[in-house]
Amino acid sequence: MEDLKTHFGECYVIPEGGTNELAIRGCEEFASTLVNTPFDYLCLPVGTGGTMAGVIKGLPTKTIIGFSVLKGGEFLRGDVASWIRNSNASKWDIKTEYHFGGYAKFTQELLDFIDAFGIEHHIPLERIYTGKMMFGIVELILSGYFKRGSIVLAVHTGGLRSDDVTPFLTV
Fold first, then answer.
1. For residue 148, what are the contacts with CB-CB under 8 A and spacing of at least 6?
2. Which residues contact 92 (CB under 8 A, 6 or more apart)?
3. All structural domains of the chain
4. How many whole angstroms separate alpha carbon 89 and alpha carbon 87?
5. pLDDT tens across 58-70, in order?
């Protein structure tokens, strides 16, 4: 840190992945705006776990399901638990089987899903975060994981670049 300050002057260094106490607090504030929104499950992609920790803290009575984009992302459960340790939240989980090979990795199956989803729903997804999450949500729906009639809210975290998006309809 001192080398960075010497070289760049007074600066604020954002940790890799962006997770720190300020980021978690910001995500908690965002989540608290959803307190009166009717839903049973909130789903979001997980990289470092900071967004999920903040959302859990902001919505302690809701069920939060994260979808790890990391291969071997089981460790994220411990990381998230440590960030929410002073919270009364208990209804959350991280699904680790939808990583498609790991961070920034993907398969043709995922790319085909993203294309079909975009065409059917007119919602662009990217292959690093939201595509993996949405694939997992659809698979869980089809397997009966969610109670019939449940409302599932999916957080689209963005991340789209112009080269990620293919037109859904060409006229």
1. none
2. 52, 56, 63, 64, 65, 66, 80
3. 2-154 (3.40.50.1100)
4. 5
5. 998 999 999 999 9
